[in-house]
Amino acid sequence: PPPPPPLPPPPFEADHVRYALQRFVQFLIVFVIVTFLVMVAIRAGRDNVAVEMTGGFAAPERVQEISDQYKLEEPYPVQYVFWLKNLVTLDLGRSELLSADVKTLIEQRAPMTILLGFYAIVVALVIAVPLGVLSAYRRDSWFDKAGSTLSFGFVSLPNLVLGILLLFLFAVHWGWFPADSEKIWPWDDPWEHFRNMALPTLTLALGLAAIFTRLLRADMINTLQSDFITLARAKGMSPQRILWRHALRSSLFSLVTSVALQLGALLGGAVVIETIFSLPGMGDLLVLGVQRNDLLVVQACAALFALAVVLVNFLVDLLYAVIDPRIRHARALG
């Protein structure tokens, strides 16, 4: 008899690929729109962009060379396509005001900002997850009320005020940590790296932890009232297993979404925090570029911030499908 026809690919794989492609196309569209608007906002309304890029004191021949190099006399769409092509090839131009390639400046400072953001999110989650779960489990107890009061306070406290307060107490008054953070990698000197990163990390993490705690507590309270939790209790499962294995997983959607949405605020906070603690990161570079009116540096930093926010939201959107495959299947069909 003839061999049976090959089986069609499983719908799981087809839905997975279709869903990922849809998210990726949306990611590209958002990135192009955001970076184009940033470029227009930076360059619009200036009398001569090339003169400002050279500091205003360069010879006319050098100004014309800069204008020709970056297509500054062309319409904005042409300038953007030229800039985007250079971005793909990692050619971000050379800063005349800082006397260095923009790519080199970013390579020197981006790792510090990435570490700061990573530490802040990890510390925030370490604080928020147990606090949110226990607050929901002990709803309306003194523990819940105290946690809600603290989280509300840190949500209301701006990073600028919190950073200055921590700086005064722990660096200036008690001298436990340095007031000006230095660029020390963890593999060079773990202790000094911790001392230099502790205050900037806490400044960003405490506000994030307060937001995450409030969201997780609200979701956990709703989840603990669900029928499947009642069934689990009727089967005699321990409270620890119900909380950490069943209720927590079903309450992760808002927390995961908040982590992605707070990345923009995290990068904005990094600009302030790196300035307060003199941390040599991307936020400090962006402030330096704005102060010196360095358009190439400002545009590159803004583009990388936009890329980070959009990319993280893209990855989180894919993470939804891992947490609940029904989301992947429903959106892929939509």
Task: Tell me what you see in this structure.
This protein is mainly α. Helices cover 76% and strands 1% of the residues. It has a two-stranded antiparallel sheet with strand order 1-2. Helix 5 packs antiparallel against helix 6, helix 6 packs across helix 8 and helix 13 packs across helix 14. The longest helix has 36 residues. 31% of the residues are buried.
| Strands in their spatial order, largest beta sheet | 1-2
C-alpha geometry: globular
Rg, alpha carbons: 25 Å
**What share of the residues does DSSP label as strand, in percent?**
under 5%
Features:
two-stranded antiparallel sheet; about 75% helix; 2 strands; 14 helices; mainly alpha; single chain; about 325 residues; globular
List the helices and strands and how they pair.
Elements: H1 11-43, H2 49-53, H3 60-69, H4 76-88, E1 94-95, E2 100-101, H5 102-137, H6 142-156, H7 159-173, H8 190-224, H9 227-234, H10 239-250, H11 252-276, H12 282-291, H13 295-323, H14 325-333
Antiparallel strand pairs: 1-2
